[in-house]
Amino acid sequence: MSVSYVERPGGRIAYEVHGDGPLVVLSHGMGENRGSFRHLVPLLVAAGYRVAAVDVRGHGDSSAGWPTYAPAEVGGDLLAVVRDLGGGPAVLVGSSSSAAAVVFAAADAPELVAGIVPVGTFVDQVKPNPVMRVAQALVLRSPRLFGMFHKTLFPVTRPADDAAYRRAMVATLREPGRMAAVRGVVAPVEPHWTARAAEVRQPVLVLMGARDPDFRDPGAEARAARRLFATAEARMIDDSGHYPQADQPERTAEQLTAFLKVVRTDA
Questions:
Q1: In a 3-state reduction of DSSP, which class is residue 53?
Q2: What confidence score (pLDDT) does residue 235 get?
Q3: Which of 18, 70, 99, 177 would bridge 64 by S-S if both were Cys, CB 3.0 to 4.6 A apart?
Q4: DSSP string of 129-146?
Q5: What is the pLDDT of residue 264?
Q6: Cα 197 to Cα 218: distance, rounded to the nearest angstrom
Q7: Which residues pair with 5 in a beta bridge?
Q8: How many CB atoms lie within 10 A of CB 85?
Q9: How far is it, in rounded angstroms, from Cα 252 to Cα 37?
Q10: Buried (b) or exposed (e) across 122-139, using 16+ Cβ within 10 A?
Q11: Which residues contact 138 (CB under 8 A, 6 or more apart)?
């Protein structure tokens, strides 16, 4: 499948489309690329959906060197993809750092967004201790260390092709400007997505890996996120870490397709 591009102020966004049917747009987290959804896409296509997997600005085949990587701008990129594909409305799925982006997109352009699915979303802006700040700074500047950190986010199981995917990911992160994008998408910014959540009137499904090592209590984090929206539910993916689309794609697809059917019924 060929890669398509949509022009945005400051660069261009790469995305790849599979299947036919109602539009679902997938957006990955920091340091990754659209390959994060490589095991989920075929399942959604088989369920009857048109699926666009996006490379977040500065990542994958999208251009580097953007003036900002704020989630509101990433959300604007996702809306640009929706417009490029006919205007939707689409369901937006955002993993990790992209979970904030889909909230901004839904609030800013409700006519283009039928529903959103934040996956592994962070409700609170974590303030690390001095030791953690140093470790974080090192990881966010080194492709090799980021790859090592990425591996820890699969505490239960990993896809069979996990090592190959990670090698390719790290190779891309060695390109000029890529680690700046990694730092950019997770840099603290105002307003935080939680300030816009109440504006989202579309259906929301919060998904969280039950063993996500980024949270002391993943279930509590998911419930906290759910309470911020007008119409939302939270579901846990058993035996999953931070990337359920990769380590538990079948269970993730089951939850997504059930939600997509509800969104279509509401529409």
A1: strand
A2: 97
A3: 177
A4: -HHHHHHHHHHTT-HHHH
A5: 75
A6: 19
A7: 14
A8: 17
A9: 11
A10: bbeeeeeeeeeeeeeeeb
A11: 145
In single-letter form, the type of residue at position 16 comes to E
Separation CA 123–CA 120 (nearest Å): 10
Rounded Cα distance, 52 and 26, in Å: 6
Tokens matching residue 220: 């509590």
Q: With left for phi above 0 and alpha for psi between -120 and 50, is residue 58 left, alpha or beta?
A: left
The label of the residue with tokens 């283009």 reads 112
In angstroms and rounded to an integer, the radius of gyration of the C-alpha atoms of the chain is: 17
- CA separation for the pair 225, 71 (Å, rounded): 17
Number of other residues whose CB lies within 10 A of the CB of residue 188: 8
User: Could you report the per-residue pLDDT of 126-180, keeping only the tens digit for each?
Assistant: 665 565 667 777 888 899 999 999 999 999 999 999 999 999 999 999 999 999 9
Q: What is the pLDDT of residues 21-66, one digit of tens each?
A: 999 999 999 999 999 999 999 999 999 999 999 999 999 999 999 9
Q: Which two tokens stand for residue 77?
A: 């990129």
pLDDT tens digits for range 210-225: 999 999 999 999 999 9
Neighbour-count burial of 100, counting CB atoms closer than 10 A to its CB (0-12 exposed, 13-18 middle, 19+ buried): buried
CB-based burial of residue 29 (10 Å sphere; 0-12 exposed, 13-18 middle, 19+ buried)? buried
**2: helix, strand or coil:** coil
Report yes or no: 265 and 237 within 8 Å, Cβ to Cβ: no
